[in-house]
C-alpha cells in the first residue's frame, strides 16, 4: 500500500536530485540550506527542488498543512519524529558497540522505542479526527499495520524479551583478582546493610564515599566477561535474544519510515518561518491556478531576507496585481531601492506555491508554472573570451527558446554594459517575444520606456522618501515610470532645481 503525505494518489513521486538553476538568483538556495542543514538524515532537498504540476496535488498538501496548523496535531507529529530520532540513535549505538550482547541490548531498545512510537501515533491520529487525505490514509494504514502478524511479532517479541531480561538475577563474588558469577539464591544485599548501619552516624551532608561506575558507552573487558557468564546461566533467554535480533535487523516499516521523512518537509519549513511570523509578518496558503490570468499577492516579501533579518528590525512588504491582458511587470527606480528583492520575491512566491507550502503575504493568487527562468547580471569573467553583452544575449536566447505560456521569467538589470539606445532596443524585442509566448515576467531595468510597450506591461517603481531622496523606502509601487520624480527630488535636495538656480543667480 502506497501512503504518502506529500504525493496524493496518481502523483509521480520523482523528486529532482539537482538544484534548479534559478535557485541561486532567487536566493532560494539559502532557504533550502537553512531548512535542511539540521535534517541531513532525511534528504529533504530534492522535495524542495521539485514543484508540483497539478492543482489537485497542491491542494493535497494544503490539506495536510491545515491539519498541522492545529497545535494538537503538530504536537503528535513532533512526538513521533522525536521518538524516531531516539530510535535511530539506539540503532547507531548498537552498530558502534564492540560486544555482541551490548549491540543486541541497544537494538532491542531501539525496536521497543519504534513500536511504542507507532502505537502512540496511530492512537493519537484516531483521536484527533484529522481532515486531510494524507493523514487519514496514514492512520488507516497504521491501524492495519499494528494488527499484522509482522508487527505483533516485533512488538510482542520485544516486550517479552525485556520482561525476561528484567527477571534475570545473578550474584557476583569478588575475591581479589577472582570474579565468580553465579545464580542468585536469595542472598542478602550486604551493601544495603552496611549503609543502614552507618546512617545513624551521619552528620549533615557528609561527603559520599560510594564507588562510582564509569558512564562509558562501551563495556570494559571485565563487564563483558561477567555478562557473558550471565548469558551462560540463562541460555534460553539470551538464545532467544540473539535469534530475535538476527531476524529483525531491519524492522522499520517502509510507510512508517516514509512518513518520518516526508513530514519533515512540512515541519522543517514551518520551523523556518516561525521566527519570521514572530516578527509580525504573515504567511498564507495561496490560490494556485493552471493557466492563471489574474495574479496578485498582498503584503509579500523576500522570505530568505526576512529569515536573515528576523528580530533585527522590520521588513518592508509589497503588493502587486496583474489582470488580463497584463503579464509583465517592469520594475524601475533608483539603485538599491528594492527592485532585485521584489524580483526575487516574485519567483519565490511561485516556487513555494507550487511546492504546496505557505507563501509570504496575507493573500495570494498565483500561477501553476512549468519552469522558472532567471537572468541576472553577472560579473565579467576574464577567462571568457566573450564580452558581457554577448554572454547575456546567448543566455537570454536560451531562455526564450524554452519559454512557453506557463513559464515564469525574471530578468534583472540586464544590458547595463551597453548604450541606452541598445538596451531599449534589445529589451523591447525580448519583451515582445515574452508577450507573444504568454509568459509571466518581471523585468528589472533602468530603461523606463520598456514599461510602456503595450497593455501587457505594467510599471512598478521603487520609491524614495519624498523629504530625503537619498533614503530608500524599499516600497515598490505601481505607477508610471518617467525617471523624473527621483531626479527632481535629488535636484531639489542639492539646490539644483530650476527655481533654486534662478534664485541663486538672480542679481
Automatic annotation (TrEMBL):
Keywords: ATP-binding, DNA-binding, Nucleotide-binding
Keyword ATP-binding among record annotations: yes
Alphabetized InterPro entries for the sequence: DNA_mismatch_repair_MutS_C, MutS, P-loop_NTPase
Highest rank taxon of the organism: Bacteria
Region feature Disordered, mapped onto this chain: 1-23
Sequence ranges assigned to domain DNA mismatch repair proteins mutS family in this UniProt record: 326-506
Pfam family, any one: MutS_V
Any one of the GO BP annotations: mismatch repair
MF terms (GO), sorted A to Z: ATP binding; ATP-dependent DNA damage sensor activity; mismatched DNA binding
Tagged with keyword Metal-binding: no
A cellular-component GO term for this protein: cytosol
Name listed for the protein in its UniProt record: DNA mismatch repair proteins mutS family domain-containing protein
Source lineage: Bacteria, Bacillati, Actinomycetota, Actinomycetes, Micrococcales
Amino acid at each position: 500500500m502506497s501512503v504518502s503525505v506529500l504525493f496524493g494518489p496518481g502523483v509521480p513521486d520523482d523528486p529532482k536530485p539537482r538544484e534548479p538553476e534559478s535557485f541561486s538568483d532567487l536566493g532560494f538556495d539559502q532557504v533550502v540550506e537553512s531548512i535542511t542543514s539540521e535534517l541531513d538524515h532525511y534528504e529533504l532537498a530534492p522535495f524542495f527542488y521539485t514543484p508540483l504540476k497539478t492543482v489537485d496535488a497542491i491542494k493535497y498538501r494544503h490539506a495536510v498543512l491545515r491539519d498541522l496548523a492545529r497545535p494538537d496535531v503538530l504536537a503528535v507529529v513532533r512526538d513521533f519524529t522525536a521518538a524516531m530520532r531516539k530510535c535511530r540513535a539506539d540503532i547507531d549505538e548498537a552498530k558502534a558497540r564492540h560486544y555482541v550482547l551490548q549491540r543486541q541490548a541497544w537494538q532491542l531498545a531501539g525496536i521497543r522505542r519504534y513500536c511504542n512510537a507507532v502505537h502512540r501515533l496511530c492512537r493519537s491520529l484516531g483521536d484527533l479526527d484529522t481532515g486531510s487525505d494524507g493523514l487519514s490514509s496514514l492512520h488507516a494504514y497504521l491501524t492495519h499495520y499494528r494488527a499484522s502478524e509482522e508487527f505483533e511479532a516485533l512488538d510482542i517479541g520485544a516486550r517479552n524479551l525485556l520482561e525476561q531480561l528484567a527477571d534475570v538475577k545473578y550474584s557476583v563474588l569478588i575475591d581479589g583478582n577472582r570474579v565468580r558469577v553465579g545464580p542468585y539464591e536469595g542472598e542478602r544485599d550486604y551493601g544495603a546493610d552496611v549503609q543502614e548501619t552507618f546512617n545513624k552516624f551521619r552528620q549533615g551532608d557528609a561527603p559520599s564515599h560510594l564507588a562510582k561506575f564509569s558512564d562509558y558507552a562501551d563495556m570494559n573487558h571485565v563487564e563483558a566477561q561477567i555478562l557473558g557468564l550471565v548469558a551462560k546461566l540463562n541460555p534460553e533467554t539470551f538464545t532467544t535474544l540473539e535469534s530475535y535480533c538476527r531476524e529483525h535487523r531491519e524492522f522499520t516499516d517502509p510507510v512508517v519510515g516514509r512518513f518520518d521523512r516526508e513530514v519533515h518537509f512540512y515541519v522543517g519549513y514551518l520551523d523556518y518561518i516561525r521566527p519570521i511570523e514572530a516578527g509580525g509578518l504573515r504567511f498564507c496558503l495561496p490560490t494556485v491556478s493552471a493557466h492563471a490570468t489574474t495574479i496578485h499577492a498582498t503584503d509579500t516579501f523576500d522570505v530568505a531576507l526576512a529569515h536573515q533579518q528576523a528580530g533585527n528590525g522590520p521588513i518592508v512588504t509589497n503588493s502587486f496585481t496583474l489582470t488580463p491582458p497584463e503579464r509583465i511587470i517592469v520594475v524601475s527606480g533608483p539603485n538599491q531601492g528594492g527592485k532585485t528583492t521584489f524580483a526575487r520575491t516574485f519567483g519565490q512566491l511561485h516556487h513555494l506555491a507550487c511546492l504546496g507550502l505557505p507563501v509570504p503575504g496575507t493573500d495570494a493568487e498565483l500561477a501553476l508554472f512549468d519552469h522558472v527562468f532567471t537572468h541576472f547580471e553577472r560579473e565579467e569573467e576574464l577567462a571568457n573570451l566573450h564580452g558581457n553583452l554577448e554572454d547575456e544575449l546567448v543566455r537570454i536566447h536560451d531562455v526564450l527558446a524554452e519559454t512557453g505560456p506557463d513559464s515564469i521569467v525574471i530578468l534583472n538589470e540586464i544590458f547595463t554594459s551597453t548604450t541606452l539606445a541598445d538596451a531599449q532596443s534589445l529589451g523591447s524585442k525580448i519583451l515582445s517575444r515574452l508577450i507573444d509566448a504568454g509568459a509571466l515576467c518581471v523585468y528589472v531595468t533602468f530603461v523606463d520606456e520598456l514599461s510602456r510597450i503595450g497593455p501587457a506591461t505594467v510599471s512598478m517603481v521603487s520609491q524614495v522618501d519624498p523629504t530625503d531622496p537619498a533614503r530608500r523606502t524599499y516600497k515598490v509601487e505601481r505607477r508610471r515610470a518617467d525617471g523624473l520624480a527621483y531626479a527632481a527630488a535629488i535636484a531639489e535636495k542639492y539646490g539644483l532645481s530650476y527655481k533654486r538656480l534662478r534664485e541663486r543667480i538672480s542679481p
